[in-house]
Amino acid sequence: MRFRRKRLSSEAVSKYVFLFPGLCFFTFAIVVPFFMGINIAFTDWDGIAKDYEYVGFHNFLVAFQDKRLWVPIMNTLEFAFWGVIGNTVVSLGLALLVNARTGKLSVAARTVFYIPCCFSAILTAFLWNFLYKEIVTEIFAIKNPLGMPKWVIICIVIMQLWNTSGINMMIYLSGLKNIPSDLYEAATVDGATAFQKFGKITLPLLMPAFTVCITLALTSFMKEFALPLSSTGGGPAGASRTISIYIYENLYRYNKAGYGEAISMMFVIFLVLLSTAIQSFFRKREVEI
Predict the structure, then answer these.
(1) Class at the top of the CATH hierarchy for domain 66-283
(2) Domain named ABC transmembrane type-1: which ranges (predicted)?
(3) DSSP letters along 118-165, please?
(4) What is the pLDDT of residues 266-276, one digit of tens each?
């Protein structure tokens, strides 16, 4: 018993040793700045001066009256709408395609579809800027779509889908692998079509994967920052300016750190509530074998 207790304690210590670096990083890179931001949101700090005054909820009241804020809000919601739909269709489609293959072909397809996830947002923006400017304009004889207010959001959503769909593809693929083949065999014996199998077996049993993937896609597109900033700078005429870009501009361009943090806090609260609601919606529809 003493040997077992000593062994368990050493295992526990080793776990904490491995957790400590990540915990420190999370604390100083996420937790501490978050609470500092809450404090700044109630001040008139400009981001530079050492002195500032507490103004209570003034910054939050100004945000509700700021007409310029509505454009980034609508842009962000449009990003999230098209992004979640596109990500679900593309990543699920890729997962079904890979799952239908076996052996080396399946491994090769999985690798090819996942490689874009290894590219940074800046590199992705550079590659797609070149494609839109040099190839798309030549093939379709049109102007650069990134310079068209009606098309810029769709263009950036396509960039994001290419850059991130591989992650959700792997999650869906894992869910597909966990579905017993016996269910499909029994359905085949009963005369079920491929669409009936997909609707009655695949989709219900993939609900846990849908919960994770849609939540990840939603938060990713709602927080859209790097791609529109590096590809269009929020243009043309603010057509791709998201809430994250608007927060960034207030913090570092307009020297309104307090106001920027107030918008950030409200955005975080909204995102948490929305994610919680979506997870609750899908978890109620999850089924177990």
Answers:
(1) mainly alpha
(2) 73-278
(3) GS-HHHHHHHHHHIIIIIIHHHHT---GGG-TTTHHHHHHHHHHHHHH
(4) 999 999 999 99
